Amino acid sequence: MDFSARATIRDLAKAAGVSPTTVSHALNGKGNVSERTAERVRRMAAEMNYRPSEIARGLQQQRTGILALIIRPFRTLDTVLPNGVDYFLRVVGTASLAAMENNYTLMLVDDPSRPGVPFGAQAADAYIVTEPYENDPVLTYLSQKRKPFLTLGADPARKDAFISIDEGSARDVELMLSHLTRAGAGRIAIVTGTDRNQWNLATLEAARAWLDTHGQEPLVMSVPEVEGENAGEAIVDEFFGAADRDRPDAIYCLTGRHASGVVRAALSRGIRVPQDLLVAAASGSIQNRVESPTITTLDLKPEEIARTAVECAIELAEGRPLQAVPAPPPATLDIRESTTR
Amino acid sequence: MDFSARATIRDLAKAAGVSPTTVSHALNGKGNVSERTAERVRRMAAEMNYRPSEIARGLQQQRTGILALIIRPFRTLDTVLPNGVDYFLRVVGTASLAAMENNYTLMLVDDPSRPGVPFGAQAADAYIVTEPYENDPVLTYLSQKRKPFLTLGADPARKDAFISIDEGSARDVELMLSHLTRAGAGRIAIVTGTDRNQWNLATLEAARAWLDTHGQEPLVMSVPEVEGENAGEAIVDEFFGAADRDRPDAIYCLTGRHASGVVRAALSRGIRVPQDLLVAAASGSIQNRVESPTITTLDLKPEEIARTAVECAIELAEGRPLQAVPAPPPATLDIRESTTR
DNA sequence: CTGAAAGCGCTTACAG
DNA sequence: CTGAAAGCGCTTACAG
């Protein structure tokens, strides 16, 4: 029934009949405290519902308890929470909760190198940077400032320079392209975004390799992510405007919204999906599950990635070296109407 | 080129040739500092890129700089970031950014009264509680603990007890029901969720009043939010299993996923949408924009609500009384195929 | 095994 | 108008 102030370490020390030092030692398992004393302190702490002030601890230990999440493509997307790009939202939500469970607080940050950024953006204990660009200045900044950070997707120009969870693996590409082949595709076109990040670049590279191995000429196109569904017309123009022999019988888009646009553009020209053309996306969005036809996508497991990233970030924040660079979870296939004949 | 520690108030004081006290006064506009001195301090601060430690300030002022966002329906939804329920995601994203812009950090919190909650969840400077339930224990807890908070949607049992941004206004109901009428509806059925929150209860009440005014018998049903699209069958059974004279020619669901389910269930029974049945939703989700037929929804402006909520929460956090209880932004209508004959 | 003291970087009564 | 001092709630060398 204590409606007022929270108990401090002094209150607890007094109640347990010891000094604040001993309380601190007992609760943090430091120093040499007799088990009898430690037990008494812990019991009193529970009884008083004592919770050490992270603020005071932070001041002492020069920590803020803040984890910063920097979503690099944020500004290239058309709204703050872009429709159809739920990948990042799932990352944010899961990361927030994972951080909280570990007594950290997650802060969505724009660009920490910008002058006048809020304190927390500058003073986070560790940073998670999603989809860094080639030679990304944010990574350069963080590394110069000696801030602990990891990236989701490597900086394509500095692959092994920083800790990162890789993206666009050959395994995921293989998963989708062999599915398309089994579904009847003989000539697969690839559509990436134009952002220079590992996701686009590594996927493209892996796809080229796969196509080469399987004797297919690469049919490749890059379209700005921000065009979303509107890109469909241009993509279909590109691949179906040319002579017959060049036409693909499957289009694999990295972003779900491009795939949606492709389906619509194809249907409007009498190209049937999936009968005449298979369409699939790598990073799916909700709409791909409900539009007609539904579109096959990869499930890239953003929740798992977010959770792993937060756990790694906390290790870094607390000064523990990472045992191993974490591997991304294997994607799985969500097969839907657009690739089911 | 300072790669190491940040400047502290002492560094700045030394550089400006004054005491830390004077620095503090000058930068915070307190005390009486000569304009000449203040100007010098500000100039040096900018030069050294001095940023006061929010941690130290927080310890001193007993503030954490944390705003907690409690999404009450969180656990009743089927995943952490439920598909089709993008309303909350848009709130979270916008609130995160708005908080950051004001030097606060937003923390997604589950239940702050649960024993063992993280520090931040217990020590936030202010709380925002979305969709509280009737006699919500979380509100009781916060109010007993004297924590500043506001709610998005009032506690239906304690309407004026706490600061809240109202939901389910008669104006929004009127907007949708008169649209349905103009679109040809003569007998409108209403489907709410089962959570006992203001959104469900106030909307239902306003809808009943509207129907009464317009000479329609109320055709009403409540279905658990968590059933999502699966609820469609039961809803259509309910309204189309009965004798002819009771059948609605329009169904208005509060949640977008229910509306999706209704459309699917109706179509599978040969009830055409919109020809035989108009369908609309209040809280739309992405899928309603892309499924076929697309479904008419209200845009409840979650971004605006989130931003307003954060601004109010900060006022409360900093001990300033709210000038006025904020009004929710008026919803607008997104008319789509499901109500266009 | 235990505790007094200093200090993390600020703010704020108070004295001058 | 300016600054020395105390204190916010912790942690950690250090002394006993």
The radius of gyration of chain A is 25 Å
H/E series of chain A: HHHHEHEHEHEEHEHEHEHEHEHE
Into which percentage range does the β-strand content of chain A fall?
5-15%
CATH superfamily of the largest domain in chain A: Response regulator
| Subunit organisation of the chains | homodimer
Please state the second-level CATH architecture of the largest domain in chain A: 3-Layer(aba) Sandwich
Mean pLDDT of chain A: 88
- First-last Cα distance of chain A: 66 Å
Q: From the helix content, strand content and strand pairing of chain A, which structural class follows? A: alpha/beta
The two chains with the largest interface, and their residue counts, are: A-B, 56 and 56 residues
CATH topology of the largest domain in chain A: Rossmann fold
Helix content of chain A: 40-55%
Shape annotation of chain A: elongated
Low-confidence stretches of chain A: 77-84
SS field, number of helical segments of chain A: 13
Textual characterization of the structure:
Two copies of one chain form a homodimer. Chain A has 341 residues and is an alpha/beta fold. Helix content of chain A is 41%, strand content 15%. Chain A folds into three domains: 44 residues, 434 Repressor (Amino-terminal Domain) (Orthogonal Bundle); 129 residues, Response regulator (Rossmann fold), CATH 3.40.50; 138 residues, Rossmann fold (3-Layer(aba) Sandwich), CATH 3.40.50. Chain A starts with 8 loop residues before the first helix and ends in a 7-residue tail after the last strand. In chain A, the strands form two sheets. In chain A, strands 7-6-8-9-10-11 form a six-stranded mixed sheet, sandwiched between helices. A five-stranded parallel sheet of chain A has the order 2-1-3-4-5, with helices on both faces. Chain A contains 13 helices and eleven strands. In chain A, strand 1, helix 5 and strand 2 form a beta-alpha-beta unit. Chains A and B meet through helix 4, helix 5, strand 2, helix 6 and helix 12 of A and helix 4, helix 5, strand 2, helix 6 and helix 12 of B. Chain A binds a DNA duplex (16 and 16 nucleotides) through helix 2 and helix 4.
